[in-house]
Amino acid sequence: MDQEAIYEKLTEIFHDLFDDDSIVVTPELTAKDVEGWDSLAHIRLIITIEKAFKVKFSTTEIAKLEKVGDLAALIQSRA
What we know:
This protein is mostly helical. It contains four helices and no strands. The protein has a single domain, classed as Non-ribosomal Peptide Synthetase Peptidyl Carrier Protein, Chain A (Orthogonal Bundle), CATH 1.10.1200.
């Protein structure tokens, strides 16, 4: 799966999960940039992404994620 397809699907997930179609998903996007992205939303986001991309992340991998670009790279490495 290429980066464009990953970001397309991530954008859909972010819009749905945060109920905000104005979110622009970029590699530099972080939790600080999205209203409502707290620890609980983060867990829901990871679970939703795992289901959508049919992948499973370890706790260590999740803890290392700092921005959406890191997440997209992790997804691509599993695809």
